[in-house]
Amino acid sequence: MEHRPIFIGGLSFTGKTQLRLMLSAHPNIFIARRTHMWDRFYNRYGGLTESENFERCLHDLVSAKHIQSLHIDVERVRNEFKNGTVSYEKLFAAILSQSAHHEGKTRWGDQLGFIEHYADAIFAAYPSARMIHMVRDPGARSGESAFVSSRRAGRIGWETAWWLSSARLAGRHQKRYAGRYLVLRYERLFASPEPALREICSFLDETFYPEMLTHGEINSHAAGIQLPLPERDLLFIRSCARKVMGKFGYAYDGLRLSWKDRVLYSLGWPVNLAALLAGTLGAGLGRRELFQRELAS
Q1: Could you tell me which residues are beta bridge partners of residue 185?
Q2: Does residue 19 sit within a domain?
Q3: Does 229 reside within a domain?
Q4: Does 84 fall in a domain?
Q5: What average pLDDT does the segment 122-129 reach?
């Protein structure tokens, strides 16, 4: 059986959930949310050809909070692999395809921040997969995330590192997996939802349905919204990410810092730079857990 899964990736506050809701309104598409199969289970239990490893992995999978809601028939999954080889990729596909079938859909998918870090393994396992990578102006994204993140010293440095890591992967994967990897700007989706969704459906080889436009909270998001973020933070982001931002068409108008902001920018610059360097190193080493913990704290 050929799987044609759909993966939605990108950072938080880039429109992933809204896009998932719109795509899930399609009669053929079921997309799960944050199953964490790849970042918490992939290659974590040894070879699954060993029955003990398989059982431990399957038990933990179906016990996970975000997978419990998928209505999994565990015995059916077991039976699927009784007389054949099993791998993590096949196990994930068995669970999600079963969930799609339960919903009356023919195609499955998953939404998860950082899924782009697993693109190589995903496309190797599912050659017909499609991945949509959401990106957003880093200043606007960081402004919105400031409402749920602490104002701890260095936060803006960590967020800039996170954005740069995701954006660079977007550029790399779009070239490497041409025709299978779509980079979509948050601003375009919410400014012109119908043309954007038509393009996405074409990319997925699916028919566009107008009903998709009634999902995803389109009207509650303003394209390119600039939520309150101190100009000293915007200046730090621009100074460190200007080149990569330009590749996605992002730029800031000139910033005029007050004397107070200039002082605070100078005082915060070393801490933010240290956080940026630490975050870049963490992303380069694949230390996703460190990256998340530092940003969430």
Answers
A1: 135
A2: yes
A3: yes
A4: no
A5: 95
Question: Vertex 21, ends 15 and 27: CA angle to 5°?
Answer: 140
Sign of the torsion formed by the C-alpha atoms of 167, 216, 13 and 127: negative
Question: Tell me: the pLDDT tens digits for 142-195?
Answer: 877 765 555 667 788 888 998 999 999 999 999 999 999 999 999 999 998 999
Q: What is the CATH number of the domain that holds 221?
A: 3.40.50.300
Overall number of domains in the chain:
1
Decide: 96 and 5 in contact? Cβ < 8 Å: yes
Judge if pTM exceeds 0.85.
yes
Q: What's the per-residue H, E or C state across 193-209?
A: HHHHHHHHHHHHCCCCC
Instruction: Give the confidence band of 1 by pLDDT, cuts at 50, 70, 90.
Output: low
Q: Give how far the C-alpha of residue 198 lies from the chain's centroid of Cα atoms, to the nearest Å.
A: 21
Structural domain containing residue 142: 6-28+106-296
User: 3-state SS of the chain?
Assistant: CCCCCEEEEECCCCCHHHHHHHHHCCCCEEEEECCCHHHHCCCCCCCCCCHHHHHHHHHHHHHCHHHHCCCCCHHHHHHHCCCCCCCHHHHHHHHHHHHHHHCCCCEEEEECCCHHHHHHHHHHHCCCCEEEEEECCHHHHHHHHCCCCCCCCCHHHHHHHHHHHHHHHHHHHHHHCCCCEEEEEHHHHHHCHHHHHHHHHHHHCCCCCHHHHHCCCHHHCCCCCCCCCCHHHHHHHHHHHHHHHHHCCCCCCCCCCCHHHHHHHHHHHHHHHHHHHHHHHHHHCCCHHHHHHHHHC
* Residue of 33, 11, 29, 14 lying closest to 201 (CA atoms): 29
For residue 107, list its beta bridge partners.
Answer: 29
